[in-house]
Amino acid sequence: MRRRAAVRRGPRLRDALAAALGAALLVLSASGCGTGRAPQRDASGATEEDTMDQGIAAQYALAAERHAELNERVAQLQRDSAAEAWRGTSTVSEVIPASGFELGAELPGASRTNSYYFVVSRWAEPGAGSAAELVRAFAADWRARGWDTSLAASEVSGEPRATALTPDRYWFAASEEGGALRLEGHSPVYWGAFESLIEAAAERRDAEDARGAHRRFAARDASGAIVLEPGDYRPFPAWEAVPPAAKGRP
C-alpha cells in the first residue's frame, strides 16, 4: 500500500519540480540573464562593456566629437531659419555633459553614472508674432525631413512648441517664450563613465579659463547673454589643457 502511494506521489513531485524550473526560467528571461539576449547598444553602436573597457582619455575624445556634432547640427538649424541675432546663456555649462539617467528611456539601463548626453540652447528675438511663425516653420521643415515631429500650444501661455526626434536619436525643440524664440538640441545618450567625464571636462575648462583661453565666451550683455552666430560655440575643453604630469596616466 505504501509502495503504491509512493508511486502516485512520484509524478506529482516531478510536476512540482518542472513548475519550479519553469518559474526560474521565466525570472531569468525577464532579467535578460542566461538567455543570450544581445547587450544594449547606444547611438554609436557601442555596448556599455565595450565603452567602459576604454580609458577615460579615449572616452573623452569621443565626448569631444559628440559635443561638436550636436553644436554643428544646431548651427545648421539656425542657418535654415529666418531668425537673426542668436544668443546663448550657458556656454560655460554646455561643455559639461548631463547624466543619461535624465533621459533613461532613451537608453535602457542608463544610470546616473554610466551614461551621458549634451544639451545646447540658443535664443533669438524676432519680434512679436514672428517667433510663433518661426516655430511653425521649424515644425514644417522637420516633418519634411521625415523626423518624428509634434507641434502643440502651451496649456498655460498658448505659445507654440515644436519638437522633433531624428532617426539617429537627436532631439530638437523650437518654442516661443515671451515673444522670443528658443531653439534647443539634445544629443543621443551614450555609454560612458559620467562622473569621470564631467570631472575631466570641468577641470580642463577651468584650466583654460585660468589661462584666459576662450575669454570672449565670458562676455555678456545687459541681459546676461552672449551673441553667438550659427556655428559659434565654446569648444570642448582640450584634453591637453591639464598636463599629464598633473593627472598621472589616464
First-residue to last-residue Cα separation: 76 Å
Provide the helix percentage.
25-40%
Kindly estimate the percentage of residues that lie in beta strands according to DSSP.
15-25%
- In terms of quaternary structure, the protein is single chain
Shape: globular
Q: Secondary-structure element sequence?
A: HHHEEEEHEEEEEHEH
Strand order of the largest sheet: 4-8-7-6-5
Number of beta strands: 10
Folded structure, characterized:
The structure is a single chain. With 250 residues, this protein is an alpha+beta fold. 38% of the residues lie in helices and 17% in strands. It is built from 6 helices and 10 strands. The strands form 3 sheets. A 5-stranded antiparallel beta sheet has the order 4-8-7-6-5, with helices on one face. It has a 3-stranded antiparallel beta sheet with strand order 2-3-9. Strands 1-10 form a two-stranded antiparallel ribbon. A hairpin with a 2-residue loop joins strand 7 and strand 8 (180-186). Helix 3 (56-80) crosses helix 5 (194-210). The protein is globular, with a radius of gyration of 26 Å. Mean pLDDT is 84; it is low at 1-11 and 20-35.
Secondary structure layout plus pairing:
Blueprint: H1 2-31, H2 48-52, H3 56-80, E1 87-88, E2 98-99, E3 115-117, E4 119-124, H4 130-144, E5 148-153, E6 160-165, E7 171-177, E8 180-186, E9 190-191, H5 194-210, E10 226-227, H6 244-247
Antiparallel strand pairs: 1-10, 2-3, 3-9, 4-8, 5-6, 6-7, 7-8
Brief characterization of the structure:
The chain has 250 residues and is an alpha+beta fold. It has helices at 2-31, 48-52, 56-80, 130-144, 194-210, 244-247; strands at 87-88, 98-99, 115-117, 119-124, 148-153, 160-165, 171-177, 180-186, 190-191, 226-227.
